[in-house]
Known about the structure:
Bound molecules: iron/sulfur cluster
CATH class of the domain at 32-86: Alpha Beta
Strand order of the largest sheet: 1-2
Largest sheet: 2 strands, antiparallel
Oligomer: single chain
CATH topology of the domain at 32-86: Alpha-Beta Plaits
Structural class: little secondary structure
CATH architecture of the domain at 32-86: 2-Layer Sandwich
Radius of gyration: 15 Å
Number of strands: 2
Strand content: 5-15%
Shape: globular
Number of helices: 2
Amino acid sequence: MRRLKESPVAPPEFTAFDAGYLVSANGSWRSNYPVIDRQKCVRCAQCYLYCPDGTISSEIEFDYDFCKGCGICAKICPVGAISMEKETASSHA
Ligand code: SF4
Ligand code: SF4
């Protein structure tokens, strides 16, 4: 049976920032931000794969410096583990 070769380079943890596609923080104008309920999360990685900005790590952590608040991760999550919250002055403090 043919086997896939192991990749010589580990995939970046955050697919956009760590891969070099985003170079400066751009999430400051966001109006809503994603919050995960870890009790519900089944670690299917759909949010990691679908985030258009690559701001969800393989450990399912959000990088709020780069997240634009589009809500795709919340929409794609099959178990409703991500909700979108309104930004306030004390968000992420
Ligand atoms: S899509 Fe939902 S269940 Fe899957 S890893 Fe992301 S938060 Fe967890
Ligand atoms: S809200 Fe959009 S940009 Fe932010 S983590 Fe979710 S999918 Fe990525």
